[in-house]
Amino acid sequence: MARKFNRKRRPPKLPRSTPDGEHRSVLRDEVLKVLDPKPGMVIVDATLGFAGHAFAILERLGPTGLLIATDLDTGSIPKATETLETLRYPFQVFHANFAGLPGVLAQAGVMQVDGVLADLGMSSMQVDDPARGFSYMRDGPLDMRMDRSRGRTAAEFVNESTFDELAGAFTEFGDEPNAATIAAAIVLERSERPFETTKQLRATIDLAAPVELRLGPGYPPVHKQKLLPATRVFQALRIAVNRELANLTQLLRVLPSLLKPGGTAAIISFHSGEDRLVKTTFRDARRMGVYAAASGDPIRPSEEEKLANPRSRSAKLRWARLPRIDEVVPTPEIED
Ligand SMILES: C[S@@+](CC[C@H](N)C(=O)[O-])C[C@H]1O[C@@H](n2cnc3c(N)ncnc32)[C@H](O)[C@@H]1O
Q1: Of the candidates 197, 314, 251, the residue with the CA atom closest to the CA atom of residue 72
Q2: For FRET with 175, which of 38, 57, 240, 250 sits at 20 to 30 Å CA-CA?
Q3: pLDDT tens profile 183-214
Q4: Domains, the chain, ordered by start
């Protein structure tokens, strides 16, 4: 799916806050500051979602720039495209995995770009839709695929993986301390009845790893944990089903070759494993002189944003910039 528009029209203003159930772009102003989109530039939004960031970027690129956007989820593309069309500036949207960004750019007829944004994870619209199976708060089919046209569903992953694979995923992608207990409970349950719904999985997790004990009405919960085991296990399954770390690794690998001199990559992550990957990759490439500059501490949402959008709480934005044509990059640091 690719659309181009060149007619100039006054852009409508994007609302700063959205009603419940709609997607709010995380760290929007901070992303704009880092990527600094200007008329005539070519920028990629690798995770289009509902076009919150993409709209703000395209607004700044104007009629002489180009926005190229990808998303794995066909569900959000029509609405996002409609939003971008209101600006009547050039853009192209692709149903594609950002791991294949070089192929997307080739299809768009573009060699290199001025900036790439990836806002990882899922949109609130995906989480809130019970039919997608991302949330244990709503009963629905245990699917969790961002791209519903291919791949194993979460139900297939849960029903077909070995105990070790399940426990490994819950530990690696969810930091779940009771990973083995929960994996054992799943293996036992599925021998009676294969998993089909989010509710069934949540019930098994809750029984295997109870979160809190209440002594009675009015008593505070005992053993309260910051995150529910169900939150961690569902996150782990989503990351495993969508091969999120593998996709991110591939994106990070190809980024330097896709950026023009002086071009910037910006990545927002919500999970410690993803953030670690982004941090170490940018840092190592900076040390090797591939990037001329990279963020030190991650950029975090303000208290105001966290209050307005609780889903932004764990967001971390990191960036890296290639050397400009005339820029002398200091000798790479060599460490033992
Ligand atoms: C947090 S949302 C992005 C929201 C968007 N920045 C906005 O402002 O509306 C993440 C989006 O990335 C998509 N996504 C996740 N992994 C992807 C991948 N490997 N390739 C392309 N899109 C991906 C999801 O389907 C989802 O729509």
Answers
A1: 251
A2: 250
A3: 999 999 999 999 999 999 999 999 998 765 55
A4: 28-125+245-321 (3.40.50.150), 148-241 (1.10.150.170)
Q: What is the pTM of this model?
A: 0.88
How many C-alpha atoms does 296 have within 13 Å on its Cβ side? 0
Which ligand 1 atom minimizes the distance to the CA of 53?
A: 8
Q: How far is the CA of 334 from the centre of ligand 1 (A)?
A: 36
Binding site membership of 269 for ligand 1 (Cβ less than 6 Å): no
Give the tens place of pLDDT for each residue, 17-61: 344 445 679 999 999 999 999 999 999 999 999 999 999 999 999
Averaged confidence pLDDT in the chain: 89
First to last CA, the chain: 49
Quote the tokens at residue 185.
Answer: 């409970």
Ligand 1 pocket, residue 316 CB under 6 Å: no
Specify the ligand 1 atom closest to the Cα of 50: 9
pLDDT, average across residues 118-137: 92
Binding site membership of 122 for ligand 1 (Cβ less than 6 Å): yes
Nearest by Cα to 260 from 307, 325, 309, 187: 325
300 vs 277: CA distance, rounded Å = 17
Residue 329 amino acid letter: V
At 124 the pLDDT is: 86
Indicate if ligand 1 lies below 6 Å from the C-beta of 317.
no
